[in-house]
Amino acid sequence: MAKNLIILCILLLHFFALTVASEESDEFFSKKISPLSSLQSFKNEKLTHLHFYFHDIVTAKNPTAVRVVEAAMTNASSTFFGAVSMMDNPLTVAPELSSKMVGRA
């Protein structure tokens, strides 16, 4: 019982130390900026909106995505854990697969 109490005290001490340390440095992982300052930076940059279609073909004569390796329990898993797939999917400018291809993914 005493051993559990000591472990609990150590865990609580670490928790409080981490909480205090995280309050001191709010901008460690992110930085808050005002909307006006972000608008100023966009005036000097040119924005590009990319729009393309990704075609993942798995059940055809020539599939673009195939499973190459699987674990013994992969088919029994609901998440397909252990499966490794390879893909070479076409990227097109329109939803139709016959439209102009702009790349592969």
From TrEMBL:
The keyword 4Fe-4S does not apply. Its main location: secreted. One of its GO terms (cellular component) is apoplast. It holds the Pfam family Dirigent. It comes from the Eukaryota. It is found in: Secreted, Extracellular space, Apoplast. Residues 1-21 form the signal peptide. Belongs to the plant dirigent protein family. This is Dirigent protein. It comes from Acer saccharum (Sugar maple).
